[in-house]
Amino acid sequence: MLAAAIIAAVGAGSVAVPLSEIIKVIIAHVTPFSPAVDSVHDSIIGDVRLPRVLLAGLVGASLAISGAAFQGLLQNPLADPYTLGVSSGASVGAVLVLFLGISFPVFSMVTLPIMSILTAVLTLLFVITFARMLDQTLSIETLILTGIVLGSFLGSVISLMIALTGDELRQIVGWLLGSVAMRGWNFVSLLVPFFVIGSLLLLIQGQELNAMSLGEERAKQLGVPTEKRKAVILLAASILTGAAVAVSGTIGFVGLVVPHICRKLFGVDHRHLLPLSLINGATFLILADLVSRTIIAPVELPIGVITSLIGAPIFALILYQQRKERSTHRKRRGAVHD
Amino acid sequence: MIEVQNVSGGYEEKPIVVHVDFSVSKGEFFGVVGPNGCGKTTLFKMMSGVLPLWSGTVSIDSRTIDQYDRKSLARKVATLPQIQQSYFTYSVDETVMMGRYAYQSGLFKQPSAEDEQVVERILHQMGLTQMRHLPITELSGGERQRVYLAQALSQEPDVLLLDEPTNHLDFSYQKQLLDELKQLTLTDELTVVSIFHDLNIASLYCDRLLLMEEGSIKKMGTPDAVMQKELLEGVYQSTIDVYANPSVASPQMNVMPGYLSSASSELSSELLQVSDEKILFQVKRPLKTFSSAVVGAGFGWYQNFVNYHVDKNFTCDAPDRFMKEKFHEWGLPEHETLAMMTAANVTNFAKRYVCENNFTLLVLVTAGTSNAVDVLYGAEHGFVATPGTVNTWVFVEGELSEQAFIQAVVTATEAKTKAFTDCEITDQLTGTMATGTSTDSILIASTQTGEHVEYAGPVTALGSTIGRAVYEATVEAIKNSFQGKRV
User: Fold this and answer.
1) Residue B236 near residue B35 (C-beta atoms within 8 A)
2) Taking CA atoms, which of A128, B181, B320, B351 is between 20 and 30 Å from B364?
3) Which positions fall inside the ABC transporter domain (chain B) (predicted)?
4) CB contact under 8 A, B84 and A218
5) pLDDT > 70: percent of chain A
6) Is the pTM of this model over 0.80?
7) Pairing relation of β-strands B399-400 and B452-453?
8) CA B203, CA A333: separation in Å to the nearest integer?
């Protein structure tokens, strides 16, 4: 499915390219083989479409797997990088880099993702600490409300920074809405190392996330060294989110929608949920990007518009189901007490 | 097995558990009881290593728990939490498999063949094999609790900590779950330490109990030693009665509802309805009753008391069923009605009403003497189950101890025998003085309100009043029956 999505997405566009050519170009770019390809096709696909599709896939995979991890860890099906405010936090980091022109001396290339990751971690810690101060049990509503409020606050901070700088940063407004367009191979290679590290760190936490989704205390009783594992999971999910935001801006709801659908289709066991979210997250965002640039072509919609259009109703649906489940649960408990 | 030494701890600044010290040995079923907020759950969290200790140590197999890492601790101690709600619906076998976490290694923690075997065995043991693929949300509360017990057992622990394992379970599931646990302590030498809300269940299943109050140990020992009336009343701040369990050698506790102690119930002879067929005495509130009645013998609580007249030659295979059909006919609720039978004419009854000192007493006697017996020669009469002849009812307004009930029976019986002697009733078969008839019945009933009466022997205030009233009423009833015959 992922492969089909890649090929379909690469093939679609103003210039039609035959299927065999597409495959050849892909092989030429991602493997050591170099089959003979048409140079026009090579530049359209190889330099424009392929990096865009791969980037969409990597970003989708990153956001979806971190969403699944956040949800298991916080025992909260509504948690995702966007609703927790982590994406906005990462954007602040990215905008700060552009605004102040910060650059780390040796690793100037990775300044942007590193700053995004740092601000993502800080935002996440702030949201969790603040929500816990309000409500010891870290209930769904408190956590998400805190995340969303902080997210819109940080959004305003970014707008303020943009307004202060005048024209220079106007260009990043479009980027903030979330887009994988016109990024090129640089961005793909920038994201890959963070993606590999973050995903691997999460993929080996399946059984731990299962236990922690029963509550941290229960996980401890089952033998999980929760402090260590929690730190690793939060760090890995922040790395993925931060790096994804650094290259593509804030794309909302991917981390919410994809794990939700995967859970419905394949069950809640995190040992399967994490890899499935990864693959389907990639497919989802590639297709969303495909839709965003073809639906009203030649005009391109920001990809974030598509994901929000799909994601917000699903968010509402999950909230509704949780509410209903809990009220029937409460009724049942009431009956037992009578 | 598990040793808790001088442990204190709590949350933030406030100590919840203070200097708690006890040890539980292998295969023991150990119960922790105490009122809400006394620190039971906090103590458990410290024992399972979830909450740090402020001072003291918890050791398992002579190693303190901080010498274990989480995984090896989870292989020693498992906890059955109170029913929990998860937003993610795992299937039964996924849930049980999580209990094997502590045995899994490698990056991806794939279950080994051994893990699969253990889960299989435990699913079978808990009767969950059939529903293994169901999501746990589709199970009943009892089944779900079994799944979590299976999860804890798949940790193959030496010690199992249970926090109110029977919470939210209905009666039959409580029994089933606790029977299973008890069995494991006997067969697998599993050590069980459990918090209980229900004192009766705790004393039925536990080898020893720990009673906590305000974070400290109030008392520890066998259920008999811990379940002391004064001790429990002090700790729980309510009136609690402790009785012997009718069928098992464990104490049984009853909480006295506050609204009863202030209510008073009045006894008066106006509540009496007499017809040729029966005497019916109806009170507004149930009376605690100790009797040898046909329906309602032993201790019980009754509101309606019937003395039913039957013919001397009446025979019936199941007199209690016969009487229950009568209750139905008369519109008396079956479970609130006590009944005796007599061949004597009930209209010849005699009554005495005494209201003095701190109690009110009502005595009703129906008597016939045709089958009078000298107790020394009873065997010569042969046993014939005929309807009762002298039926003695004693109603007391007061709060009688069980001892007083039995002494009242003795005193009333002595008074009856004295009446037989003074009326010169003889055993027709032997010609000796009769001590009663072959089928007498007695009833002592009390409102259980007002003054506490510990004794009712013949020299006590209540006893002597009962003796005098029963004597007089019996004499009168015997005389009435003679007159009745003459008429």
Assistant:
1) yes
2) B320
3) 2-239
4) yes
5) 84
6) no
7) parallel
8) 26
Angle at A303 between CA A74 and CA A77, to 5 degrees: 15
For residue B87, which residues of chain A lie inside 8 Å, CB to CB?
75-77, 140, 213, 322
The single-letter code of the amino acid at B328 is H
pLDDT tens for B36-55 read: 888 898 999 899 888 888 99
**Domains of chain A (ranges plus CATH)?**
2-324 (1.10.3470.10)
- Predicted confidence (pLDDT) at residue B1 exceeds the cutoff of 60: yes
The last residue of one of the domains, among B256, B284, B304, is: B256
Residues B222 and B356 reside in one and the same domain: no
Q: How many domains does chain B have?
A: 2
Residues B167 and B306 grouped into a single domain: no
* Residue B30, strand partner residues: B193, B208
Measured torsion, CA atoms of residues B83, B84, B90, B92, in degrees rounded to the nearest 10: -10
CATH code, domain carrying B347:
3.60.70
Tens digits of per-residue pLDDT, A114-141? 888 888 889 988 888 888 888 776 666 7
Report yes or no on B55 lying in a domain.
yes
CA-closest candidate to residue A117, choices A234, A288, A291: A234
* B175 and B200 both lie in a single domain: yes
Query: Would B264 be classed as within a structural domain?
Result: no
**Is residue B158 in a domain?**
yes
CA pair distance B405, B411, nearest whole angstrom:
10
Residues B277 and B157 grouped into a single domain: no
CATH (domain of B82):
3.40.50.300
Is residue B262, in this structure, part of any structural domain at all? Answer: no
pLDDT at B487: 41
Which domain covers residue B8, as residue numbers? 2-256
Same domain membership, residue B325 and residue B252: no
B144/B210 same-domain check: yes
Q: Are residues B232 and B294 in the same domain?
A: no
Residues near B475 by beta carbon (within 8 Å), at least 6 away in sequence = B350, B419, B422, B423
Segment (H or E) for B392: strand B391-397
Q: Shortest CB distance from B102 goes to which of A72, A218, A222?
A: A222
Same domain? For B277 and B220 the reply is: no
Least confident stretch, B273-282, B345-354, B378-387: B378-387
Query: Residue A108 has what pLDDT?
Result: 62
What is the C-alpha to C-alpha distance for residues B456 and B462, in angstroms, rounded to an integer?
6
Half-sphere exposure of A112 (CA within 13 A, CB side): 17
B253-304 pLDDT, tens digit per residue, is: 777 776 654 445 577 777 889 998 999 999 888 899 999 999 999 999 999 9
Q: Last residue of some domain: B227, B256, B285?
A: B256
Question: B168–A263: do the CB atoms touch at under 8 Å?
Answer: no
Short-list B286, B314, B483, B447, CA closest to B385 = B314
Q: Is B108 on the interface with A (CB under 8 A)?
A: yes
The values of phi and psi at residue A15, to 5°, are -105, 125
Beta strands in B327-378, from DSSP E residues, in sequence order: 337-342, 350-356, 359-366, 372-373
CA–CA distance, B167 with B50 (Å, rounded to integer): 21
Task: Give which of A137, A221, A323 to mutate to test B binding, by max B Cβ within 10 Å.
Answer: A221
Is B88 close to A218, i.e. CB distance below 8 A?
Answer: no
